[in-house]
């Protein structure tokens, strides 16, 4: 079918490419001329602006928004809500907070526009392996866009999980779990590394992918990372986060659900980014006060 | 090659079966007559006692010990150390603490007997899929027994990780990671369940195995568990532990390694087994003292 | 000086009483006739309504709002903002979220009314020992109301901590710390209780208040609780929360500050309120799948 | 009464001084001549060796051991067990693990020597304020030495908590709690510091000691630390530990007691001492693999 892909970065570009490979007609827009040209060479129909991209579609228009989370997503979706016609479909495949998706769904609905939130997992591997899609939105619109979802996803890798917002909600929890998985592996390899036994970490990472209980796609990737860089040389122990982890903790707390592992995984990322812990300074000062314990000077 | 399998429970029985399937000669011993007979029917050579099992072997004798952790493992291995001849090989494939394995290795070595600790992962699926084997021990003995390891394991699923003790050490950390992975999934599904969105948990478990970042063997098993029992009916939220998790925490602490996720996973198991938290009683009593906050009576 | 106290519950009633004891004129209002009468007998000037309470004051009117957090606080403050005159002062001494206080401060300011947020600690002991007051608001209004603050507080127990919102912010963090302190004591006494040593918990609670590093006001209260009820009989291990703990975690996350202890204290409260952990159900089901580990049936 | 104080460091020296102030006869020994001379000037009877210190006592001899934890404590106590006569009393006031104290108690008992473990809290303030003493040991010996305990402690600051080992056990848990309290304050002040509100941390530390729920001796010390050094200038956020925290976690795990706050406080100390988290390196490498997330280079 025909759709527009707005945003041709690492995710949107690959998704457009995958859709083209599956025979869809994809109008492509990105502020970067280079990105547009890249997709045009693959068969995409480049647009010079969001408005032009819309013009190139016919009713019901389907516009997939794949731009960075934050103001640009908000602006793009608001523009689409104002510009599209009743019956048209907006799909937000980005890392939006599900509360925003619920709100945007209502705002779109007031103008008769359908809004779908498509939580997307798979990262840079999605182009070849397919993207796991967690889709929230009204039944009919989801049904209309389904050929897109099934071609973006691997077999059984697409699910209409519920009403608007539920797609990004499920994706958020997915990422929360991911934080915990990553931290579990991280701790394990740190314990192995600190051991007196001379453990070969790359070999263990590879080994565990064959028959062990902890085998997983992430562990395959870790084995791959170790193959490329056995000592993780020049890799700084500094871990960013793109928001879903903290949102997961917020929701856990709102639901009164204890989520120690997901939360501690988030806090470990915070700690990795601190030059020094002020809390530790306070404790060092206090231990000196009550026990005369030595302060390590800066 | 020829070896004796001591202990024919869930793990030892399946391992003997897998070795027989791969053409090895396996002397089998277990206090249970039924277990011995089951393996005899598959081609195992039953022994009536540990002593008889040893007699049926010829030098260098290889004895695989697969009995429950604790006193029975200690007794079996001590008997073997005293009974076997120099050059014979004991392999402990059970859930022993690596400190015990290091000690047993020394005790065996004093009598010229080789001791190998083979950390084994794979659970009930190992029979068909192979066991991931993390093997510690002296080079020559490990080399001698290698045909056993390679046939028990799937391809690339066996590694000689280091000296005596290192096999059980790596297996211990493996299980520590497993605790963290399980808890990460557990928390995620609890957050999904507590949501106002009507999420179909079995479908999400299945979905995430197709293209998502969190796909793993454990998640495939969870999808399977949900297929069998979508509401987890009659499954009590009570989680046992068999020791490796706590040992992992002990070692992390001994190594000065922060391991919040593995530790909190262990504590969550403890909490699942408590009727009531005494700590919570103390806090409830205290909140009443300072703030007049209501005590919920028993 | 003269002021109105709106809300004569456990906190407001005691605060009105303490102000009367210090010679202030206090107009008292509460929907409960009994509460009004109780304060009237102590010298308070009862009002039949919020409107009447305001009428009984003269410019600049000072109205202290001490009603339960939530809708009733919002409604009361909005009414006051609409009713009071420029130059009048609203003081919110309740458990409001500081973000609400910042907003209410702006709304009040637009009508020329001064808004002060007074974080209040001390609980049921404040009447006799004084309330620790963390006050946020514009300098001049805080200065005007200062005689009230200094008489409600014990010596040095009042501080103007910053602009509007900062009072409730500091109070929120105070409560977050309190969660951690409570949980630290709770865990310690649970470890003592589970020991094979026959430790007399009430005696240890009392002992530690004399010369030990962990002595504190909370520990004095715990010793008191144990004196009244040495076995904590009938005290259910069920711990409520009134919001400040979760807000503290939210702010820690917003600030990228790791706060494991405060957060785990909150999660322990959540767990104390769960009949059963769904996460534990998931893990129990999974362990059965991979290892054949026994499920405990419900 | 008469006793020997072995070890005249920060703790032992002050304790000898306090006992001399209370009229006891104290034989003092320390390898440092200067330390011996200091106590001699206060009225202590200096000994040139452990053997000479014992000679200066008469039956039943009471020897208080206050030397650093580890080999020197072990050696000193073993020498005393071999040297003293039946009926004599050894008191270990140091930071020994309670398992060692239980063992030493048995070893002493075999020679008829009494062994008492006296957990000691109070730090550098004990000289003037008294030491909180948690004493384990046989009734009669504890009774004999009681005048020492009551004079070292403030009023009600001494308790015979149970049999040998229980003194150090209770002290261990005390320190575990202390870890949690310190971390709770540390986190709170870090959250205050990271806020956009311009909070004056030293003033808040002082404020909270007056009427707030979180007031405590530690908070008084923190206020003192801030008075001396309002910005904690030159105080590195690096926190040592002397063992009791990790022992508390070990015992919690042995008892199946969840102790998240005490454990996370310990892990925060570990993290404060790491240049970089290897776990974070692993996660950074992994995030790059699956999502193309940028690695921060070293």
Automatic annotation (TrEMBL), chains A, B, C, D:
Gene3D superfamilies for this protein: N-(1-d-carboxylethyl)-l-norvaline Dehydrogenase, domain 2 (1.10.1040.10), NAD(P)-binding Rossmann-like Domain (3.40.50.720)
The name this protein goes by in its record: Decarboxylating 6-phosphogluconate dehydrogenase
Keywords (A to Z) from UniProt: Gluconate utilization, Oxidoreductase
InterPro entries: 3-OH-isobutyrate_DH-rel_CS (IPR002204), 6-PGluconate_DH-like_C_sf (IPR008927), 6DGDH_YqeC (IPR004849), 6PGD_dom2 (IPR013328), 6PGDH_C (IPR006114), 6PGDH_NADP-bd (IPR006115), NAD(P)-bd_dom_sf (IPR036291), Pgluconate_DH (IPR006183)
Domain of life (superkingdom): Bacteria
Molecular-function GO terms, alphabetical: NADP binding; phosphogluconate dehydrogenase (decarboxylating) activity
A Pfam family: 6PGD
6-phosphogluconate dehydrogenase C-terminal domain: residues covered: 167-295
Family (UniProt): Belongs to the 6-phosphogluconate dehydrogenase family.
Record organism: Sulfobacillus harzensis
PANTHER family reported in the protein's UniProt record: 6-PHOSPHOGLUCONATE DEHYDROGENASE
Any one Gene Ontology BP term: pentose-phosphate shunt
Keyword 4Fe-4S: no
